[in-house]
């Protein structure tokens, strides 16, 4: 009996609470809504906080209260892990209040939200690039901030992801046996990221791509393309004389030189 009364009381309490909140949403008392939004935020009721603030923000647009409300609005979405909305609101905050009390934090969090949304390397990296730009902007504006070193760490992490993305995209052509496209993609990747941790592997793949492209070419084009492979061999061996790919590289050179020695020149060689 006591348990049943407890359940009934709880249901009535919830009903009354929902009813009061519904009335609050329909109310035209903006100051009451602002007060309740602050209370909800303090109680970590972030969904209700954002719903109320969304209704009253235009009313406080150019005021000190508006600055605080917009900051709480962005923070509430962040606490709910809605990083897309949070990032958007942090960016709007710095647009409205570039010199406000929370401007430095807003600049950081706008980039940090993009960082949190950065996906694994084989997916689109728009958020990754946006986060890098955001952290660079933060460092340029707040060079003395204690968050600078943290931002630099995030930038290194994100740039490593872009390098990996670039590597995987170039490697894909090679795995698909599209050797001409692979050589071009790898060359572009090395131009963009010359100090990539994948550099040695990618240079080997470029060499092997040029060699296999020559092997699979029409006879009248082979001599020129074998010569391209041999030129690439010398570039590789100069940079990596003791490479872990040395056995394969030497084999490519020997087969290429054998072909060039035995091949009959064609009109294309003139």
> Which of globular, elongated, flat, extended, rod-shaped describes the shape?
elongated
Radius of gyration: 31 Å
| Strand composition percent | under 5%
Distance between the termini: 103 Å
Topology order in helix (H) and strand (E) letters? HHHHHHHHHHHH
Number of helices: 12
Count the E strands: 0
Q: Averaging pLDDT over every residue, what do you get?
A: 90
Sketch the major β-sheet: none
**Number of domains in the coordinates?**
3
Helix content: over 70%
Description:
The protein folds into three domains: 30-117, Tetratricopeptide repeat domain (Serine Threonine Protein Phosphatase 5, Tetratricopeptide repeat), CATH 1.25.40; 119-172; 176-265. Helices cover 77% and strands 0% of the residues. It has helices at residues 2-26, 30-42, 46-56, 64-79, 83-96, 103-117, 126-141, 148-175, 179-192, 199-215, 219-239, 246-262. α2 packs antiparallel against α3, α4 (64-79) packs antiparallel against α5 and α5 (83-96) packs antiparallel against α6 (103-117). The model is unreliable at 8-16 (pLDDT under 50).
Fold topology:
Layout: H1 2-26, H2 30-42, H3 46-56, H4 64-79, H5 83-96, H6 103-117, H7 126-141, H8 148-175, H9 179-192, H10 199-215, H11 219-239, H12 246-262
Could you provide a short overview of the structure?
It contains twelve helices and no strands. It is mostly helical and 270 residues long.
Keywords:
270 residues; mainly alpha
């Amino acid at each position: 009996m006591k348990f049943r009364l407890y359940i009934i009381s709880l249901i009535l309490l919830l009903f009354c609470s929902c009813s009061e909140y519904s009335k609050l949403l329909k109310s035209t008392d903006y100051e009451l809504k602002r007060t309740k939004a602050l209370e909800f935020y303090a109680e970590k009721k972030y969904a209700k906080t954002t719903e109320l603030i969304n209704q009253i923000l235009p009313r406080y647009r150019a005021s000190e209260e508006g600055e605080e409300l917009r900051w709480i609005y962005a923070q509430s979405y962040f606490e709910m892990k809605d990083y897309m909305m949070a990032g958007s609101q942090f960016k709007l905050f710095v647009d409205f209040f570039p010199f406000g009390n929370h401007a430095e934090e807003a600049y950081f969090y706008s980039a940090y939200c993009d960082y949190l949304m950065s996906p694994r390397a084989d997916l689109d990296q728009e958020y990754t690039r946006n986060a890098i730009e955001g952290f660079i902007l933060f460092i340029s504006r707040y060079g003395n901030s204690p968050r600078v070193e943290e931002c630099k760490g995030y930038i290194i992490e994100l740039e490593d992801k872009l390098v990996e993305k670039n590597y995987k995209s170039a490697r894909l052509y090679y795995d698909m046996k599209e050797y001409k496209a692979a050589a071009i993609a790898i060359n572009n990747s090395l131009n963009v990221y010359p100090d990539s941790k994948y550099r040695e592997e990618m240079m080997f793949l470029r060499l092997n791509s040029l060699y296999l492209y020559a092997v699979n070419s029409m006879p009248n084009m082979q001599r020129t393309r074998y010569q391209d492979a041999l030129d690439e061999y010398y570039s590789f061996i100069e940079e990596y004389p003791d490479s872990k790919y040395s056995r394969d590289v030497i084999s490519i050179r020997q087969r290429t030189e054998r072909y060039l020695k035995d091949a009959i020149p064609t009109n294309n060689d003139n």
